[in-house]
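Hey, I'm writing a tutorial for new members on how sequence and structure tokens pair up, and I'd like a real worked example in the thread rather than a made-up one. If someone can provide the structure for the chain below, I'll link this post from the tutorial.
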Amino acid sequence: MLLRIANLAVRRAKLLTALSVVAVVAMAALGFGAFGKLSSGGFDDPNAPSTKAADRIEDKFGGDTNLVLLVRSTSGGLDAPAATARGKAITAGLKDEATVGGVLSYWDRGGKDLLSRDGTQALVLAHVKGGDKEQDTNAEKLIDKYGGERDGVRVQAGGNTAVGKDVSAQVGKDLAVAETIAVPITLILLVLAFGSLIAALLPLVIGLIAILGTFAELYLIGSVTDVSIFALNVTTALGLGLGIDYGLLLVSRFREQLAHGDDVADAIRRTVTTAGRTIAFSSATIIAALAALLLFPMFFLRTFAYAGIGVVAIAAISALFVVPALLMLLGHRVNKGRLPGSRAVRRPDSAFWGRLASTVMRRPALTALPVLAVLLAAASPLLGISFGTPDERVLPESAESRQVATAMRAGFDANDDSAIQVVTTRGVSDAELDPYAEKLSRLPGVVQVNASTGTYHDGAAEPAGPAAATMTRPDAQRLTLTHDLQPRSDRAQDLVTAVRDVPAPAQALVGGTDARLVDAKDSIGDRLPLAIAWVAVTTFVLLFLFTGSVVQPLRALVLNTISLTAAMGAMVWIFQDGHLSGLLGFTAQPMDTAMTVLMFVIVFGLSMDYEVFLTSRIKELHDAGAEPAEAVTTGLSRTGRIVTMAAGLLAVSFFAFGTSSVSFIQMFGLGSGLAILIDAVAVRGVLVPAAMRILGRTAWYAPAWLRRVHGKVGVSETPEPKAPVNA
């Protein structure tokens, strides 16, 4: 198959190049429409009790609060005519909006609970209707219409929809900044890495095709289902990074074959059947890891599976078809635009990595143990990890939605935005509802319970107010529990569990911010073992098919896990424990559950990318009869520079996201970049040679029956024989 692809590139280089140009134009035209298809939500399990509660509340009661308008007068107080007129106009206007339901306002009768303790601020609470994308669009229009400052009255927007709007806007800005930083630096480093301007442009071709192709894919997927806006970050980072990885591998092997005296056509064949095979297998391992994200029900994670699988597949296809065609057209001109003193860079082997491998092979324990000690120390903060979901604190303090949340916590006794929502699945009589509401009001941390039968404080009931009629339907009852606990804190989550444990007169669904967090953690936790098992099993099977050994996959899994846990431990130390918060400008909080899973899967896949790069060369030498030590030393000298250059360039793309003002994007970018560097330097440079030396010939062991299986279905790294151009 690969030989056929190589011969196609040799015979039809101009045609393949022309078709590629047409495809790029078409993907660009389609792909830029993806930006209008993306939404900021997707962190909730659609089948969780809290999601079902929100759906039922929207169906029966107009929805729970997801938009908060904080009103304050800059002169004259809330009783001033301008403030009163503005507040009433906002209240009446929201009630008339077709996209809004469940409006509660200080300016409504009985709305005194929505006045701040000092009397200078008041709230208007509303529910913006629609799915995640519709809510984003509708909320933006409402905030533009009712927010802002005029006539001495300032209105700021908060709540989940406003946070989503601010996050989406910030991510768009941050992405532009990150690419402005990453692309020029990457281009300069590529030129230095290749020692030639022409050769340095080839990885960018792969990256451009992969990014535009994935944007087009996201546009099509976004037309039929929800797609997260955060997929843009992964698409650009992976597209550029894999373009660099695959481009380096292909161009380096092509140059090596030319240096050995092959003509251009034979060099293409040899490159595609060796480096091309490595790319095909490497992309398969990354895709297998990313497929684990499809096991989770949140479209936030599933989106990254769509985007990640797409960008890897398109990068591999463009590397196998487009780059060989371009190399055929360029021939020896691939070295045009040489930098002075670049001969050492263009050599196929690296003396430094060869010497390092020799040193490690002579003293495997002495060199590996200090590296292991450092990595395990870096991983130790994982022992104290805690998890959460994104809230307004992921935004900078200057964000309006965060300012509203801060003002509400500091100035209001209780508010519906952070309340626990309870809704029954059938009608409940007053006689049944009253004792249930009393029990709920006695739970630790509960300030009051609002129900159709009254307002309850610590078991004592007050007569129902004017809003009581909005809490009951013939086939449902709604209760709102306001509390004085920090939203998303451990105590708030414990309160959700306590509410669910109170016997209800009918099936009761519990929702609200804290309930969504509890359900999201449960949903991810329930599926995480299956996802880890999927990644481990598929990686083991693929590496066995590639190497014919059962020891090599196990060695790879262990070493990759060590590097990954070291990077994740460092992120816990930074982002959860708050170290470097002043330098990076974020608020310390629990690790984002979904983003941590995402980082694990993506980094594990990329580490397998470098695993395949190195192992492929070692196996090629082993199959040619080299002794184990020679195979490892020569293999690392031939791939060490490629792996470290590729890792360094990919890390630049991820580290650029460290400039983001959204803290979980910072965590993902810095964590991924750090993990890639640890894997490329510490693992590939030290731990792999040490492990191979300790294992010796056992590294290639497989039972006889599995060797027979590999002989029939395995992947051989030995290049296919040369074939004439017309074959």
